[in-house]
């Protein structure tokens, strides 16, 4: 099958959508499909990647004449399906949807974000202006939590499927760690060295991820943990909220929390091998790929019950879920105090794979979406 992926953002940018689309392209090519990408992200030439780039401030991934460029590419490629990847607001991707409809291509639109009330209102307004529900789209969401608000807006005429994000689950299985993790000397890099319960979080330090809320969560949890139990935390990632987080840690004298910055996948794998608990506290997490990596590595996960993490974490089996801030605090405290529960969840996570998140299952899910769109 000839597949054209359309995404505002792509490599060399490194973010959730960019990495996931690049991994999907690789998996589909390995499965024998002919796959190309069109993106508004500038960068070095890559095989099969069309860059439609305008000279805009801050390298914004959009083009004022994007639809015309997309139509030209679609007309010349003899593609079987256009697979468009959108966040909450993705102008270039939606140009791709419109161009594919005009070119007569079947369209699958994957929504990688959680639609909040403002976003839902925007798409209702776009329906009134353009009537996109009549375009014959097939929509996929990355989790049931992400699918619910889309179905509410799209109505019965637009199929909304759930296809998980993909992960090479075997590569995250716990194994021997080759050498120490690169990190600050005074940071909680290896909890096994001092017996402390090691709590880990991984993600972009952006306001929408509520990183300061995470620090308050850790602070509240440690205050409720008995003094004879040591607790440390490592928060991996970088972003605009890092400065505020560092100030908070200094003001609250939370030297037991480390902010080592961005890690490579190999460094994260090594970090998870030394972790006891993984925390993903964002309530509007559409999927939670970092949490899935932790679950695949055998680490108990604490997350919001209303987030996409609930698709692969069941309470008491792969981790603990909570609907409120206090629920999450209580869950972290429980896992910190109860070593037997931590061990039983860790053993379950190590012995069972999240099959629906494996690449064979993801490719099968998208194949169904493509056939539905073509039909």
Automatic annotation (TrEMBL):
InterPro entries: Glyco_trans_1, Glyco_trans_4-like_N, Glycosyltransferase_grp1. The keyword Cell inner membrane does not apply. CDD domains: GT4_PimA-like. Gene3D superfamilies: Glycogen Phosphorylase B. Keywords: Glycosyltransferase, Transferase. Residues 15-169 form the Glycosyltransferase subfamily 4-like N-terminal domain. It comes from the Bacteria. SUPFAM superfamilies: UDP-Glycosyltransferase/glycogen phosphorylase. Residues 198-351 form the Glycosyl transferase family domain. The keyword Glycosyltransferase applies. It holds the Pfam family Glyco_transf_4. PANTHER family: SULFOQUINOVOSYL TRANSFERASE SQD2. This is Glycosyltransferase family 1 protein. The lineage of its organism: Bacteria, Bacillati, Actinomycetota, Actinomycetes, Streptosporangiales.
